[in-house]
Design goal:
By secondary structure, the chain is α+β, with helices and mostly antiparallel strands. The chain is built from twelve helices and 13 strands.
Amino acid sequence: MIYSEDKLPTDVEKVNQIPIVGTVLEVICRSAGMGFAAVARVTKDRWIACSVLDDIDFGLEPGSELVIGTTICNEIRSHKQTVVIDHVDQDERFCKHPTPLKHGFQSYISIPIFLKGGEFFGTLCAIGLKPAKLNNPETIGMFKLFAELLSFHLNNIDFLERSNEMIRNLNRQLSDSVGENRQYKHISSHNLQEPLRKLRVFSDMLVVATETNEMARARQLSLRIRTSAQRFSMMIKDLSDFSDHKDEFAFEYLDLNQVVADVMAQLSVQIEHRNVTLEIEPLPSIRAVLSQMEQLFYQLIDNAIKFSGENRYPVIRITCQELLLHEIEDLLPEPLAMAYLEIRIWDNGVGIEASQLEKIFDIFSRLPYDNFQKGEGVGLAYCWKIVRNHRGVIKAGPNSPKGTVFTILLPLTN
């Protein structure tokens, strides 16, 4: 378990989720005769009060910070040993120490809190304005017992969070598997049957043609059989590639402006030939898989060019904005971040009929425009899988008055 600076607010919240923490602080103050007790999150740079009991107006509350260099807890973080002071003025080590001189306390005890695996989390500490008898097995044992109890609860919270994340992942994978299995069933029952039917029909006709010595007819049927066989082979390859398109890739910070620029370079011939107008807003950098982001933008821009219509100059516009979770929560089956990047790719093409919107991302799904059919209908299926791999959502809708808009939501998270 590795703790980083960006998790510190979460760490404070975790301590306050422990129902007994207030009771623990009250018990140690009354038992040891102390006026202030706290659970502190301590790193090499920060001291943060997670939970506090303050009967001496020390001035700290949950979330408050002390300069790390002015605390004894900083030294405990280094040597990871308990510190107990019965009477500061009579303690050779601490009578001239800057921390008690600065804060004005005479008695002090601090126990390190370790997490599972030995990671240092912080301290359970208490101070008194008057001397107190702390350096005895009973008091130290009580503090250590409570520190271990807090560690147990913190580890349990982390375990539950990881378990819940695993359950969410399993549910997502199950939902994705159900969706993909539905597609595979439809493909095996319909898409793959069509080229097989043609192969059977043309083969039967070829047998008849050869038996009647119609060689011209036989050659024509042989070409049709080869074409159907090639199409069937390509469908099997596309299906295999789609099933292998998993999310086990290395994520890295990507400049989406550079990704789109690279895609435009790959599509430069089509863009120049169709006189495409591209309007692209500045895009941010996000953590993503480079090859998949390139394929996502390639498929969507290429699709917009293909379905622009014969007598229309294509116009493609890419916009983006950051949205907070509460603004889009209804669109997300499983919210995973507090903020999302919304990318919209607009075009002025032939558009998508409302009846096609629900299945447009199914593999081998093809738009009902015979004049514009190109490929086997796997491009948008790849887009859906890529966005899913990045824990996002992709939707298609009409762009008024003409064309289509694809909306992509990607979580802004590390």
